[in-house]
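Researcher: Re-running this chain for the archive, since the previous output was lost when a drive failed. Same request as before.
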Amino acid sequence: MKDHLIRLIADSGSTKTDWALTGLADAPVILHTQGINPFHQDADTIRAILCNELLPQILGMMEHGEWKMDNKQFSTVNRQFSISFYGSGVRPELEPLMESLLREVFTSHLSLTPRIEAHSDMLGAARALCGEHEGIACILGTGANSCLYDGESIVMNTPPMGYILGDEGSGAVLGARFLNALYKGRLPQSLLQAFEQSQQLTMAQVIDRVYRQPLANRWLASLSPFIHQFINIEAVHQLVVQNFHDFISHNIVPYHRPDLPLSAVGSIAHYYRDQLAEAACHDGYTIGRILRSPLDALE
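Model: Regenerated structure tokens:
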């Protein structure tokens, strides 16, 4: 057992939660559960996820030797163990609820009394990207968000407004704009044929999937890998760059801090980092850190 702080760090969205357990080995141990969102889920639902999905993985580690402790080691872990939960839907008024549920589960089932904090995914991204430095932090994944960060806390946030009213720069908006361009003839006919063959969809089925099926934003964002395959087509390249231009002009310019680097976390930022850098440079910003996941830096 290592004699230093042991941390359980969660990066949670509405679909899945990634948990990084650090301090037990040279590399973090990554665990997974379904998403936890206290804005959309009640306490019983969240408690069930923690008890039925997270705890069995931790108990399995303890039973199979990855985390075996004698009484002295257990006492050390109890003094040094902390949990940091960063998630979508964790508004300030819901932070005490998440902290209480985590404390309840770990105390009653593992007899551990960790130090616990729960915050928004935006603060988690800002801490991962900027650390203790001032900067502009962004989330560019299925959805999009941003903030002005002073090295300790979020001081400004442009409301993202969701993929229907906003979310410029996101995977969902990218997918919607790609389909619009594809079916309105602004992209090559060969690309339309490749898309329909690859996805096994017609235009009527695309419309049904967007307007009549649940979770349209996730489906639209799921088109990103296909789009990325054709990034060398100039019209596709420009579509991606324009998505980032709109993100910067609508969400980042209001901070009035072009002197600060623009850093981003998320799959869209990761895979389209060259196009993001192109848009940022054109709009007078420099790029800071780009991370696929905030867990890459929060350990």
